[in-house]
Amino acid sequence: xxxxxxxxxxxxxxxxxxxxxxxxxxxxxxxxxxxxxxxxxxxxxxxxxxxxxxxxxxxxxxxxxxxxxxxxxxxxxxxxxxxxxxxxxxxxxxxxxxxxxxxxxxxxxxxxxxxxxxxxxxxxxxxxxxxxxxxxxxxxxxxxxxxxxxxxxxxxxxxxxxxxxxxxxxxxxxxxxxxxxxxxxxxxxxxxxxxxxxxxxxxxxxxxxxxxxxxxxxxxxxxxxxxxxxxxxxxxxxxxxxxxxxxxxxxxxxxxxxxxxxxxxxxxxxxxxxxxxxxxxxxxxxxxxxxxxxxxxxxxxxxxxxxxxxxxxxxxxxxxxxxxxxxxxxxxxxxxxx
Amino acid sequence: xxxxxxxxxxxxxxxxxxxxxxxxxxxxxxxxxxxxxxxxxxxxxxxxxxxxxxxxxxxxxxxxxxxxxxxxxxxxxxxxxxxxxxxxxxxxxxxxxxxxxxxxxxxxxxxxxxxxxxxxxxxxxxxxxxxxxxxxxxxxxxxxxxxxxxxxxxxxxxxxxxxxxxxxxxxxxxxxxxxxxxxxxxxxxxxxxxxxxxxxxxxxxxxxxxxxxxxxxxxxxxxxxxxxxxxxxxxxxxxxxxxxxxxxxxxxxxxxxxxxxxxxxxxxxxxxxxxxxxxxxxxxxxxxxxxxxxxxxxxxxxxxxxxxxxxxxxxxxxxxxxxxxxxxxxxxxx
Lengths: 338, 334
Fold this sequence. Notes:
The structure holds two protein chains of two kinds. Chain A is of the alpha/beta class. Chain A contains twelve helices and twelve strands. In chain A, strand 1 (6-17) and strand 2 form a beta hairpin. The termini of chain A are far apart. Chain B contains 13 helices and twelve strands. The longest helix of chain B is centred in the middle third of the chain and has 18 residues, at 202-219.
């Protein structure tokens, strides 16, 4: 196996809120192989966006990377000086923030905004920047003539394409996209995902796709990292995590999701309760208060167990996951808890 | 039809809501646009006809800008209709005023999309739920009891503990249940739910949807569920109306539409819904790129510029909904 492009080890990010620290990411480890799309999945507040931002070190003022390593091409991004980090942004790692609507400046034309990246970061002159901008618009399937338009003249889907073009501007190795299709209608969403996949394959990119939607993961991702309450619950190939979910949280998530291909009579089963407050997380396993399989031993910190090669699971009962999956498929299992 | 049977029909009609050729047009562009002759009319709802039977749950499905929310607002008389008519329980809504309107408001309720916006952050849950009771002149002594009952109905455990809490002390799922309780506290016959779970996390959505289904069945509610998500509509509605640029494309039993969509737009919509399953089709969608532009819809069929099967007739003539088996389809192919 070749070296992964990015290797995150025991990453910790905390926010200072008043006198307290909220550990939004509390020891996350995962690898991003070269040329793959990885889905970073979880609910709001699970730390997925914080992880994504920490990878580019564009984090809020009150946030600090308090531990761990982010190994990218032999460098530890958690430690290198800001100047060196800044040189990597756009050129090696590009970030597509949540909602392309807000990431484009409404008072400049799209060409100006692409040109800014190409000239200031890529050292191109005006003419080169123009040529590259046209090339980028061709790549994402927008008419070149629209380069001189302002963001408000584009539809939501087109703005998302512009954001993708912007991310691709300097041929990065890794693109981190935070909920790139969440605000879009299903048809546009599908078209954007197809485009992203096509570009990723053609250019041999690695992509981290932050999302709350496991159907998006099922459609486009090769690998999955499932986060819950600041920790990685499990990670593995998309097939492993979706067809053989091994953390009770992932099992529950699968039951709570409507499936258009499934039987009409299918009942959706919610996971009772709500994610914990990270300012004061429960001791031991953080999913314990909502978990139908919790035992006394879950009050202690759960171990990481490999249920299959490359499929680590953060659960005391991971070795029993096959049996738990059968139980988890039953609605009663989750109702008994409520 | 004799007068007698006609009267009987209106008295004990199966149909609760009857929409006939409803139109809602907005004037867009301000005074400056008007001066330059550039102000335009957006036809948010443009000639929509359907009936809703008592106890039926109907999904209004479509992309943003298709007019589904505008249609929902018309049904609740939150907008004044531009043309056509809507009858609720035999009464024409545009003629309902004052006392009649107050009565209508207690019978027809809206469940809002975003629970964090729909509830006054400075009101306790008790105050939030007292307000509709106050408006309906229900004596103070009876209110507490009704509030507790409404919260029990939406399955908030130990409702009494929530009464003095403020919205920020509740989770999204709990808050959406309060929004539902507020809509149901006056025991309406008809509710319009506008994307009620889109702001909630996936793991708690299912709980809110289950409560919605349960309450609807228990109270025998007639419901409209507005959404862009066919998988969710399928979960709560036996019938679906698919809208595109202010018009109905297809109307029929949800299961039939999911299994075998007929209208070219519905076909694309069904194919585009992602499923949480590694084995799924990655075929390109049978639809052209581009977005619908409500200010400037194509002539004839509004979908024709993105339709893979469009032909000359589609530009010339607006397709009227025609019965095809169990449903209505507005397309020249049928």
